[in-house]
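Progress report, Aim 2. The chain analyzed during this reporting quarter is listed below.
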Amino acid sequence: MTKVIQPFHLLVIALASWLSRHQLTVIDYLIEENRVLKEQLEGKRLRFTDEQRIRLAVKAKALGRRALDELETLVTPDTLLSWHRKLIAQKWTYARKGPGRPRVAQEITDLVLRMARENTSWGYDRIQGALANVGHVVAPNTVKNIRHGIEPAPERKRRTSWKTFLKSHWDIMAATDFFTVDVWTVRGLMSYYVLFVMRLKTRSVYIAGVTTAPNSAYMKQVARNLTDVSDGFLVNSRYLIMDRDTKFTNDFRGHLDREGVKPVRCPVRAPNCNAFAERFVRSIKDECLDRMILFGEASLRRTLRTYVFHYHAERNHQGVGNRLLEPLAKVGSTDDPIHCRERLGGMLNFYYREAA
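Predicted structure tokens for the chain:
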């Protein structure tokens, strides 16, 4: 006897068939979209968050290995399944609550490293004692284990950093260097060489010479001026840092040495060894010279005098606590009216309070 299919059943079968075809179309589109996305990545690695890994791992486990092999997934099936294994492992991983050696406090670590860097001859026991002085009681082995690239005292004390050398000789140390300025003259554009000297402790600067021809005779006269017993800029200095520029001639260095100022020549191509002088060159060029067109030597000298005065009395210096080197105005007051002093047509400004 033939079973008659009711119209409702036919409708259900037709709807199920349509839904199946629709889902297959959606899946084909998503697979193609993934394929296009992978082509756009061009082999670049995707970065997933932990939450995204968990979501993909759960879905991948439900599909199974065979289905994953047939799909164009963003990551390999092995990766998806390994994420699922890690997800399961996390369920059985508990935080450790047993005994164990606690980590050294960050404050103690920072103090150990600071003491080791600032005191090259201190060993583990000496640092341990210094820590006890400030309330931190630790064992010598604790100090020993905090290395972070710091060598033991016997090796460390044989090396004196350039920074340590400079600080230990602040009072008697000076630095010098040249920089060039292009100036328009009646003979056209000419390059002037400006020689300056700086006291490292105070950062005070002295323009020692301005010339187009820094030859041996000129440099020897500059050396005489710098070491003059009455008003020479280097009277109280014992070391003068300079680079290996040939303009610092043998006569120049020899005269300084005879007058008790030892020339300290930097290694080749090591501008950081004369960093303070290099920083002054950058300051005067960025703040002044590179923003001006100079006509004649007199214009250059006037500009240098103006900037050096501003540098000493009106410019804050981060290297000395962001303060003025030689303040002339009232500093720090909040009661008096504020004034602005302009130099070089407003290129250099100084804001100050003047007593009423």
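The mean pLDDT is 80. The radius of gyration is 37 Å. These observations will guide the mutagenesis work planned for the next reporting period.
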